[in-house]
């Protein structure tokens, strides 16, 4: 195996792996079940890093989880014995939103276990300013951004950095409201103020395949958020008295008007290209472009996620889009495993691992 894009220390570990016994590993949260279920479908071994208080639940899926690495706290993922265990099992880590949040994007840059996808993009994702810079440089339409609370002159949404699932986001329409909201959150330093674009939310699941040399739209969803979605059930006179919050509690399947798919594809293609140029490491595998579609059919992207998103969980048996590529059930978890398996068989692992 040539070095390719794999860090030298990871390359040394890969050289010692028994590639006939590769394992897919992740943490017990977010999208772990579909990741491991998909890996088992593709004939790979599976490893779950799981907190002790979650073990009973995940053991009910032992028919597709081969090994459990049991920990007390998520910080233990960084400890040597956990990493040694993963390496002994020939593991490839699949980072999801919770995994990144628990371990930290900076810690993942030096994590010795091979990771599927891009490490560097996770650091860009963790910082709102860098995230929006990348989208702008890709030529993707994004909301107007305000550099400081004093600039706010319309309805805005204030968002925190990192994979927080919408926690801490709030709406404001004046400089005073922005400052008050930030104060309630402890005056965080990593946040962004964006114009609140009116339209329909749509989250596009995309997969950049090195094995098949193509970009696939694997599905899309709408996020169900508390309490902003719950407010719709209240009469207006009561709803107006409650401040909306945006904590994601679930996801709803979505099928997009076909003519809009072309814009989504072009956005995704531009995004992949800009990661090569700006990040210095091409994004590989799953990512998500998160948008609002206006009444004029304009797609305004307000965020991206540089790894698998929880919205893919609505398509464990595949989406209408993944079926068009594969003519068989294909979750994103299984799609990841197929890319790994095919890359292994073609001697391309160094092109998809970091």
UniProtKB/TrEMBL annotation:
Pathway: Purine metabolism; IMP biosynthesis via de novo pathway; 5-formamido-1-(5-phospho-D-ribosyl)imidazole-4-carboxamide from 5-amino-1-(5-phospho-D-ribosyl)imidazole-4-carboxamide (formate route): step 1/1. Pfam families: DUF1246 (PF06849), DUF1297 (PF06973). The keyword Transport does not apply. Keywords: ATP-binding, Ligase, Magnesium, Manganese, Metal-binding, Nucleotide-binding, Purine biosynthesis. It is an enzyme of class 6 (ligase). Its cofactor is Mg(2+); Mn(2+). One of its GO terms (biological process) is 'de novo' IMP biosynthetic process. Catalyzes the ATP- and formate-dependent formylation of 5-aminoimidazole-4-carboxamide-1-beta-d-ribofuranosyl 5'-monophosphate (AICAR) to 5-formaminoimidazole-4-carboxamide-1-beta-d-ribofuranosyl 5'-monophosphate (FAICAR) in the absence of folates. PANTHER family: 5-FORMAMINOIMIDAZOLE-4-CARBOXAMIDE-1-(BETA)-D-RIBOFURANOSYL 5'-MONOPHOSPHATE SYNTHETASE, 5-FORMAMINOIMIDAZOLE-4-CARBOXAMIDE-1-(BETA)-D-RIBOFURANOSYL 5'-MONOPHOSPHATE SYNTHETASE-RELATED. It comes from Ignicoccus pacificus DSM 13166. This is 5-formaminoimidazole-4-carboxamide-1-(beta)-D-ribofuranosyl 5'-monophosphate synthetase. It catalyses: 5-amino-1-(5-phospho-beta-D-ribosyl)imidazole-4-carboxamide + formate + ATP = 5-formamido-1-(5-phospho-D-ribosyl)imidazole-4-carboxamide + ADP + phosphate. Belongs to the phosphohexose mutase family. Its EC number is 6.3.4.23. Gene3D superfamilies: 3.40.50.20, ATP-grasp fold, A domain, ATP-grasp fold, B domain. GO terms for molecular function: ATP binding; ligase activity, forming carbon-nitrogen bonds; magnesium ion binding. ATP binds at residue 225.
